[in-house]
Design brief:
It is built from five helices and nine strands, in the order βαβαβαβαβαββββ. The chain is an alpha/beta fold and about 180 residues long. The chain has a single domain, classed as Response regulator (Rossmann fold), CATH 3.40.50. Helix 2 packs across helix 3. Pfam families: Response_reg. Keywords: Phosphoprotein, Transcription, Transcription regulation.
C-alpha cells in the first residue's frame, strides 16, 4: 500500500545538514512535497508556527534546544501543536531512552542509522494508526498501545494509565 504524502507538511528538526538531506530525500522519494527544515529545537519551534506541519520528525540530541526539550514544550495541552505526531530520531537506543521517549509523548522512535523502510514504517504508523491522546496529572500525549509480549516497563500512579511495552525484542517502533 502506498500513501499519498503530497498533501502533508513535514517538519524536519535535525542539527546535521547531512542527516536532514538524507531524511528529506527519503521523504521526497515517498512522495512528500512540503518539507520544512530547522537545525535545532529553537528554530524548529519557530518553524512550526510558520509551516503548520502535519508530522514532526526531530533528532534527540541537538544544540540550543534538544529534541526532548522541544517535545516537552509541544506536549502541553495549551500548545496549538500539542497533538502533532512526533517521530524521534536518535542513535541512543538504550532502554532508558526508549522509556523516556514514551514518557515525553513521542509517537515513534527511529534509530540511526536510518533506513528508508524504517522511516516509511514510522510515517505510515502515525498516519494509518492514529492514537487518541490522554491527559493525566503527569502525562499528556498519545495513548499507549498494546505491545506483543506485554511486559510492564512502568506504571503510573493513581488515576494514570498503566504503560506496557516490550523489552529486548529490538522493536523500537512500538514505544507508546
Amino acid at each position: 500500500m502506498s500513501l499519498d504524502l503530497a498533501s502533508l507538511t513535514f517538519l524536519l528538526v535535525e542539527d546535521s545538514a547531512y542527516m536532514r538531506t538524507i531524511l528529506r530525500t527519503m521523504l521526497q522519494g515517498f512522495g512528500a512535497r512540503r518539507i520544512v527544515e530547522a537545525e535545532d529545537g529553537a528554530s524548529g519551534l519557530e518553524a512550526m508556527d510558520r509551516a503548520n506541519p502535519d508530522i514532526l520528525i526531530l533528532d534527540w540530541v541537538m544544540p540550543i534546544l534538544d529534541g526532548a526539550d522541544m517535545v516537552r514544550m509541544i506536549r502541553s495541552p495549551n500548545n496549538p501543536f500539542a497533538y502533532i505526531p512526533i517521530i524521534m530520531v536518535t542513535a541512543h537506543t538504550e532502554r532508558s531512552r526508549i522509556v523516556e521517549a514514551r514518557r515525553l509523548g513521542v509517537h515513534e522512535l527511529l534509530s540511526k542509522p536510518i533506513s528508508a523502510k524504517a522511516l516509511y514504517q514510522r510515517v505510515s504508523s502515525v498516519i494509518l494508526h492514529p492514537r487518541d491522546f490522554i491527559k493525566t496529572a503527569t502525562y499528556f500525549g498519545p495513548a499507549p498501545r498494546e505491545i506483543r509480549n506485554r511486559q510492564k516497563i512502568w506504571q503510573g500512579g493513581p488515576g494514570q494509565p498503566q504503560q506496557q511495552g516490550g523489552e529486548g525484542d529490538g522493536n523500537l517502533t512500538a514505544i507508546g
